[in-house]
Design goal:
Shape: globular
Helix content: over 70%
Largest sheet: none
Structural class: mainly alpha
Distance between the termini: 53 Å
């Protein structure tokens, strides 16, 4: 298959795959409209609040896979780094603006982490996840934790890959995640953002 055609197909596949609202579908299977629970978001954090840790874990794994698969396919077909960047952004766009949910969706955190795993490898991603968990244990507020940790992403990508396109992508993740968390930021400023976990 022609590389240009593969690139176009993977852009479409990345958006469609990442648009699949697993949080919404799993909650619906429990007769719950997750959009009417908690923050109204279909992502993992609201699933954790509404359905508990086991469903949160399931949604996070599925949300990572739906983004990682098209990105890994881009690597498999030896697409250029810039083409992988575009496919990654298509997947993140699908996660945030799902056509299944009237172009609403998640807050990009699981999608960003999925791309991050593909770029830096599982070993480095697990180290990042360990640091993320330690910070969450300290802060106990998921949104604040994510807003802080996103600044480490481009540094980690550069350290792991020395790739300018991938590091630029990692830098773009910062405004993407902060924009997606704009309502959380307002609540953080008012000190009304709920603690997601109790240790």
């Amino acid at each position: 298959m022609n590389q240009d055609l593969i690139f176009i197909v993977l852009i479409l596949f990345a958006y469609i795959s990442a648009s699949t609202p697993f949080g919404y579908l799993i909650a619906k299977s429990k007769k719950i409209d997750i959009r009417k629970q908690g923050s109204g978001n279909v992502g993992g954090t609201n699933i954790l609040r509404s359905l508990g840790f086991s469903y949160f874990l399931l949604v996070v794994v599925l949300d990572i896979l739906k983004v990682a698969v098209p990105v890994l396919l881009a690597f498999y077909f030896s697409l250029s780094e810039w083409e992988i960047v575009v496919i990654s952004l298509a997947a993140i766009t699908g996660n945030m603006f799902s056509f299944w949910l009237n172009f609403k969706g998640g807050k990009a955190v699981s999608a960003v982490f999925a791309v991050f795993i593909c770029l830096v490898g599982l070993k480095n991603a697990l180290l990042f996840l360990f640091i993320w968990a330690l910070l969450l244990y300290t802060l106990k507020i998921m949104s604040l934790n994510n807003l802080i940790m996103i600044f480490i992403v481009p540094v980690a990508i550069w350290y792991s890959t020395s790739s300018i396109p991938f590091t630029i992508l990692g830098t773009l993740f910062i405004p993407i995640v902060w924009w997606a968390h704009r309502e959380n930021i307002k609540r953080l400023a008012k000190k009304t953002e709920p603690k997601i976990i109790k240790f």
